[in-house]
Amino acid sequence: MKVLVVGSGGREHAICWKISQSPKVDKIYCAPGNAGISQIAECVDIKAMEFDKLVAFAKEKNIDLTVIGMDDPLVGGIVDVFEAEGLRVFGPRKNAAILEGSKAFSKDLMKKYNIPTAAYETFTSADDAKAYLENAEYPIVLKADGLALGKGVLICPTKEEALAGVDELMLDKKFGSAGNTIVIEEFMTGREVSVLSFVDGNTIKIMSSAQDHKRAKDGDQGLNTGGMGNFSPSPFYTKEVDDFCQKYVYQPTVDAMKAEGRPFKGVIFFGLMLTPKGPRVLEYNARFGDPEAQVVLPRMKNDIIDVFEACIDGTLDKIDLQFEDNACVCVVLASDGYPLSYEKGFEITGMDKFHDDEGYFLFHAGTKFNEEGKVVTNGGRVLGVTALGKDLKEARANAYRATEWVDFANKYMRHDIGKAIDEADV
């Protein structure tokens, strides 16, 4: 098989790596890819939103399967475009990717089908939103309706901050048109857990749980980011939580989308909050999480091509999805200053010390080759230093040991990824 992966981050590197394990695949292309991906796939200079060019490339190269990694092209309808040309593609169609593309849609869906989530209201007028905030309980959460690179969520401890947040999202357009509509919802307390799943329109198969670290700085301080690190499995995702979510969250979401005439095929990412009143859905994503993919896929036993094809063909019920009885931790090496301003173009050294067969992986997110052919930094999140272990504590120790192997100017990371593991005593 020839496979094309669309995207350029750590998630796409992890997907390409997992695809490369399949004996069914002879050739992998990635558009546009990055320096790390180029070690296992041929990178193609086509951007993720250039649908016509991607279709033309897939036809020219006789691509057997295209895998869409990123949210923007999915929400923009790339799957519909590929399918209209008779091309085989993994990911939800536009009318299903709205599950991530519009927070107002997903909240309304959960309300209509009694899927547990936070109480909320939706606003298209800044004045109406501010009037609502006058009598709200604090802290409170403001969310831009549309895609905002994982950063369009404001947690506001006071009314003053919430009012300023409305201005930021709706008037100052910090996230562009994503803030034309906003969702204001109750602030929930508890541990966040990420659960990825494969879906074929009817059947849903849950992958192993993971836990993200969104804030830029240690102690969950600083600004929201796309994710500073991750671990899998989450010790807080118990059998009791799984039983509840299977019954009230996972299958009901798939059934709800089908009932709305929006059958979902692809990956649904469930962002859960384990509240004192039970699990609640924080958000949906319509693709693999980043860096969740980097800790979940190395633990997956299955040939991922088999799973992708079963999702497309509606035969996921025939797949026995299995994961190793081990653990994985990813620590993101970022450019100092991320997620605001940062310099790039610094040479990266020490990458040759990572060996997959020893359980150490280096997933590239923001890297490229410079004119001299050296790998340099090219983004806020640069690398995902990822390691396996027999349990979470060993995997965490291995990952942090490996962060010392690789270096670049203005290298920055959190030092407490997986600290919750110690609290769970696992």
**Can you identify the CATH superfamily of the largest domain?**
ATP-grasp fold, B domain
- The percent of residues in helical segments reads 25-40%
Strand content: 25-35%
CATH topology of the largest domain: D-amino Acid Aminotransferase, Chain A, domain 1
What does the average pLDDT come to?
A: 95
Give the number of domains: 4
Instruction: Report low-confidence residues grouped into runs of 5 or more.
Output: none
- The secondary structure category is alpha+beta
Which oligomeric form is depicted? single chain
Main beta sheet: 9 strands, antiparallel
Total number of β-strand segments? 22
Catalytic activity: 5-phospho-beta-D-ribosylamine + glycine + ATP = N(1)-(5-phospho-beta-D-ribosyl)glycinamide + ADP + phosphate + H(+)
Pfam families: GARS_A (PF01071), GARS_C (PF02843), GARS_N (PF02844)
Protein name: Phosphoribosylamine--glycine ligase
Organism: Lachnospira hominis (ex Liu et al. 2021)
Explain the layout of strands and helices:
Layout: E1 2-7, H1 10-20, E2 27-32, E3 42-43, H2 51-60, E4 65-68, H3 71-76, H4 78-84, E5 89-90, H5 94-101, H6 103-112, E6 120-123, H7 126-133, E7 140-144, E8 153-156, H8 159-171, E9 182-186, E10 191-200, E11 204-212, E12 215-217, E13 221-224, E14 229-232, H9 239-259, E15 265-275, E16 278-285, H10 292-296, H11 304-313, E17 327-335, E18 360-364, E19 367-369, E20 375-377, E21 381-389, H12 392-403, E22 411-412, H13 419-424
Parallel strand pairs: 1-2, 1-4, 2-3, 4-5
Antiparallel strand pairs: 6-9, 7-8, 7-9, 10-11, 10-15, 11-14, 12-13, 14-17, 15-16, 17-21, 17-22, 18-21, 19-20
Protein name: Phosphoribosylamine--glycine ligase
Organism: Lachnospira hominis
Catalytic activity: 5-phospho-beta-D-ribosylamine + glycine + ATP = N(1)-(5-phospho-beta-D-ribosyl)glycinamide + ADP + phosphate + H(+)
